[in-house]
Design brief:
By secondary structure, the chain is mainly β. Helices cover 5% and strands 40% of the residues. It is built from 2 helices and 14 strands, in the order E-E-E-E-H-E-E-E-E-E-E-H-E-E-E-E. The protein has a 4-stranded antiparallel beta sheet with strand order 1-2-3-4, with no helix packed on it. The longest helix has 6 residues, at 109-114.
C-alpha cells in the first residue's frame, strides 16, 4: 500500500485488481476518485501450456505404417491460444507426429516376412515405448512445454516361423510308418506350450499316407 501526502496530511488509497481507489480526506471535503490503472500495474503475460496428453496410448504389435494411435492435446491458462506440437523423440523412428496425431512410421513388410528383429513394434522385445512431445503456444513471446508419453504395445498371436524338417530323404521300398524326419519351428509367443503340424498335399503323394 502506498500513501499520498498533501499539506502534511496523509491521504489514503487502495489498489484492487481492477484499479486504484483514491480516498482523500480533509476537515471539510470527502471525495472518492477511481483511477483505472490496471493495465500498467498488472499487465497480462503469456503463460506456458501444460498437461500434454494423448487420447489413446496403445497400439497392436507388428502394426503397419501410418496407423493412428492417438491425438495430442494440452491445456493452457491462456484459453484463447492455439498450439503446435513437435515430436522431439519418436522412439528411434518408430513413431511420427502429423497434424496433432501420433502415428506409426515404419512399414511392417519385413516384419511379416521375417519376424523377430525385423519387427520394430514387437511386444516380446519391448512392451512399451516412450516418446517426447513439445507443445508451443501462439502467444507473445511463444511459450513451450515438453512431456514424455508412454505408448503401450498390445500383444497379439505371432505366427510360427523357421519351419524345418530334420531329414528330407527316404530309402526306396521303405515300409509303411518309416520315420523320415521330424518337424520343428520357432514361436515368439513363449506362453504357448506347443505347436501342431499338418501336412498339406499339393501333389499326388499317396506314398506318404
Amino acid at each position: 500500500m502506498r500513501a499520498i501526502y498533501f499539506g502534511g496530511l496523509v491521504k489514503y488509497f487502495v489498489i484492487p485488481h481492477a484499479g486504484m481507489v483514491v480516498r482523500s480526506f480533509s476537515l471539510f471535503i470527502l471525495s472518492l476518485i477511481l483511477i483505472d490503472i490496471y493495465s500498467t500495474i498488472h499487465p497480462d503475460i503469456n503463460e506456458p501450456p501444460y498437461n500434454i496428453q494423448i487420447s489413446n496410448s496403445a497400439v497392436e504389435e507388428n502394426s503397419d505404417q501410418d496407423v493412428v494411435i492417438g491425438n495430442i492435446t494440452c491445456q493452457d491458462p491462456d484459453e484463447a491460444q492455439s498450439h503446435s506440437f513437435v515430436l522431439i523423440d519418436g522412439a528411434f523412428g518408430r513413431y511420427k507426429l502429423v497434424n496433432g496425431q501420433i502415428k506409426t512410421s515404419i512399414s511392417n513388410t519385413a516384419c511379416l516376412s521375417h519376424g523377430g528383429d525385423f519387427c520394430e513394434l514387437n511386444y516380446e522385445k519391448h512392451s512399451y515405448h516412450v516418446v517426447r512431445v513439445r507443445s508451443t503456444d501462439n502467444g507473445v513471446p511463444p511459450q513451450s512445454v515438453e512431456a514424455d508419453l508412454t505408448i503401450h504395445i498390445i500383444d497379439i498371436n505371432d505366427r510360427p516361423r523357421d519351419l524345418k524338417l530334420t531329414n528330407h530323404f527316404v530309402k526306396e521300398n521303405a515300409t509303411v510308418n518309416t520315420l523320415i524326419g521330424k518337424f520343428s519351428a520357432s514361436d515368439e509367443d513363449t506362453r504357448q506350450v506347443s505347436l501342431r503340424y499338418f501336412m498339406l498335399f499339393f501333389r499326388i503323394a499317396s506314398e506318404f499316407l
